[in-house]
Amino acid sequence: MNLADIARNKTPIEMFYHWEETATDRVYLRQPIDGNWNEYTWGDVGKHARGLVTALLGMGFKRGDKIAILSKNCAEWIKTDIAMQLGGFVSVPLYFDQTPETMRYVLEHSESKGIFVGKLDKPVWQRLKPGIPSGMTTIGFDFLGSDGDFPKEGEVQHHTKDLIAQNEPFEDSPVPADDDIWTIVYTSGTTGNPKGAVHVFGGTRLVGSRAMEIFDLGPDDKGFSFLPLAHVAERLLLATTSLYCGMQVSFTQSLDTFQRDLVSVQPTIFFSVPRLWKKFQGGILEKMPQKKLDLLMKIPFIKNIVAAKLRKALGLAEARYVISGAAPIAPSLLAWYQALGIEILEGYGMTENFAYGFIARRGKSKPGTVGQAMPDSGFRLSEQGEVLFKSPTLMTGYYREPEKTAEAIDAEGYYHSGDLGEIDQDGYLRITGRIKELFKTEKGEYVAPAPIEAKIASMKEFEQICLAGSGLNQPVAIVTLTEQARQIPKEELKTAIESHIEQVNRQLLNHEKLCGVIISKDDWLPESGMVTPTLKIKRSKVEDRYTQLMEQICNSGDKVIWER
């Protein structure tokens, strides 16, 4: 029986039992600590998870209880998630770059009885610690050895290493019922309080096995986990898929060691987001300016050597699948990587359908689209062009929010994404904007930001882009700059931006043409409230901050102004 047959119709925890039994001594997780790789076999992970389950049951936790996880990505995150599935507990993953107020809301709204905490930088831990309700059981991860990792001994009530040492391994290997809750994933939320998407084990019988088949993954593959495991995309592509295909997963120690760790691992599947693809490009161009790169890439004999060296320097020399998601990526950036022999496949999904929506297929991608529907995704477009989903991976609803659930899922069981799309004759989906993000200029005509932002993004010097202009005579682009762009003299950069605006405007309808570009003085980070933890721009927040400058640029005739 091949792996696809074994994995079909299995839940993730059933697949874990398979690897625990058949690949006991094979390395599954690799965690760098103080410069050294710590490796954990499937058997090691099983002992950890089973000991932890016994401990949690002994502490009074019951099957169905919600327990949160607050940590950067690490081997312990995955071990803990497996323990929760094994014990029948419901995981509530938390973003570590949210506010303490938001975190407290999620903990209280989800009715979490406890929280696992680990691998946090000191400022992050100190900022979020007040968000943990008093009386909540706190459990610290056990691998922490670096001075940069918090919480320290004594800052939490329990540590997993002590709990496991004091308890015998849980011996049963239960199979969850399809309607048992697996996890509650809270949306990062561009407006209002986060909503908890409830996912049950029935949906997982499809999501992991199908992803494994689409990406042709197996035990010899290698993943590198660094995007938040609190987000469904990383949870699907790395945490869940690894349980189905048996691939090895490595982590990074810190931002300082990220590139070194990635190069060391050379993953065969790699997932990132547009902003980071832009940063990776900037790192290459800092060492090899575009003019020099263009010259070398024109020489047939040299071209392949240069491209191979750059792929290795990026850590992607062995990558078979390279994926981008969470936001649109500029076709020009896709073309830049394609020239290096790196085909970036765009994907599209959401918290509510566990990131199981559309994905480009290797060798068949179409820039500007998010690929074709994944099997059984139940996709269709409404009469208005809204993207709708109905599949086994769809959430059962928002936790304790029946009214919001009814707003999101119609009587036929379709989830209304809020995204507008177009489908071509080959089944490729193009996202054209969001229903709620359409805005009217003072001329009374609607503007869809997403397609225009994609055109603006072809300028390498721009990192984050937000198009706004409700009530103004013309739209305005607010942008942040790459590190490299900040080194360019202002007048030189201003001239280049003005030329770019002129080029973009030639491709737009009259009411869509930009009146100018505002350059933010700093990056938009989750802590500022300008973007979500998954780096989606909170358009209303950006508009509020730059209202005065937007009015100024539209009335002054200037094409480029800097925020002071």
Automatic annotation (TrEMBL):
The keyword Lipoprotein does not apply. Keywords: ATP-binding, Nucleotide-binding. It comes from the Bacteria. SUPFAM superfamilies: Acetyl-CoA synthetase-like. Residues 21-399 form the AMP-dependent synthetase/ligase domain. Pfam families: AMP-binding, AMP-binding_C_3. Signal peptide: none annotated. This is AMP-binding protein. It comes from Allohahella marinimesophila. The lineage of its organism: Bacteria, Pseudomonadati, Pseudomonadota, Gammaproteobacteria, Oceanospirillales.
